[in-house]
Amino acid sequence: MSIIALSRISKSFGDKTVLHGVDLEVGEGEMVGLIGASGSGKSTLIRMICGLERMDRGTAGRIALFDKETQKDGRFSEHCEGLRREVGVIFQQFNLISRLSLLTNVLAGRLGRIPRWRGTTGLFPQSDKVKALRALERVGLIDQAHQRASTLSGGQQQRGAIARVLTQEARLILADEPIASLDPASAKLVMSTLRQINRLDKTTVIVSLHQIDHAFEHCDRIIALKDGRVLHNGPTGGISPDDIADLYGVEAGSLDLVKARPAKPTGRPAYPGNGLAPQDDLAARVAVSV
Ligand SMILES: Nc1ncnc2c1ncn2[C@@H]1O[C@H](COP(=O)(O)OP(=O)(O)OP(=O)(O)O)[C@@H](O)[C@H]1O
């Protein structure tokens, strides 16, 4: 199944065109790094894929997710809203509600999947609370479940945001510069968490990154944008120092990144006891109100 299919996607803001007829296909279970200099169109492309942005009209462009059309020639299709529920989006700024507990934030991942009255009254079904706690356990934050989001570190908040998309049971994760605000150790942990979800759950992940060594280490495929056009689209190992130099407008000899290569799967979880806590144990924990 095709997870993402884009054809002839163009986007302009005023008289400035930031995406020029982009074509892309992403398949099930891929982990794709989206790289490119600042302003090359990475965020716009991600916003387009998740239905937050309309393409230009009159271009015959088309976007489909999971083989269903979300927009065509600048018009959203009837499937768009339903398909958005299947897409988990992670932003650089975490987007947790700071005064609420981490668990409540993570439960928000269920909002598109429960009746509205439950969401507005905060009466999440027990099964959803178990899902949220399992997600927190997978990202190594079970002990922080009842902590206010504002008291968590940046790395913890970003892993909280990942737990939220796990709770959403997203089939596609779009992460827009998820590690840009993090220290190196937290960045590594966030990237290995995304990679592990991709490997264990076969969730498709697209991650835009400024730190290209992380893209080299964790992604199977690199899509490189330059001035709104795809400059490179292929296996991570196939991108050359010259490609990178061209992308960022630097001398190839000044780059020290080719030593970074895709990591081999280890099968090791990022956290001890990760992900598979006994259901009973988790059910007991949800007795605490959220
Ligand atoms: N809502 C908007 N209105 C006007 N211009 C916009 C808007 N959104 C993006 N742009 C412009 O589109 C271009 C591409 O922006 P985009 O954020 O997609 O790039 P990016 O590759 O994600 O950059 P960065 O890595 O710095 O986040 C930039 O020139 C930006 O100023």
Automatic annotation (TrEMBL):
Parts forming coiled coils: none
PROSITE patterns the record matches: ABC_TRANSPORTER_2 (PS50893)
One GO CC term, this protein: membrane
Keywords, ordered alphabetically: ATP-binding, Cell membrane, Membrane, Nucleotide-binding, Translocase, Transport
Ranges of residues in domain ABC transporter: 4-252
MF GO annotations: ABC-type phosphonate transporter activity; ATP binding; ATP hydrolysis activity
InterPro entries membership: AAA+_ATPase (IPR003593), ABC_transporter-like_ATP-bd (IPR003439), ABC_transpr_PhnC (IPR012693), MetN_ABC_transporter-like (IPR050086), P-loop_NTPase (IPR027417)
PANTHER family: AMINO ACID IMPORT ATP-BINDING PROTEIN, PHOSPHONATES IMPORT ATP-BINDING PROTEIN PHNC
Protein name: Phosphonate ABC transporter ATP-binding protein
Gene from which the chain derives: phnC
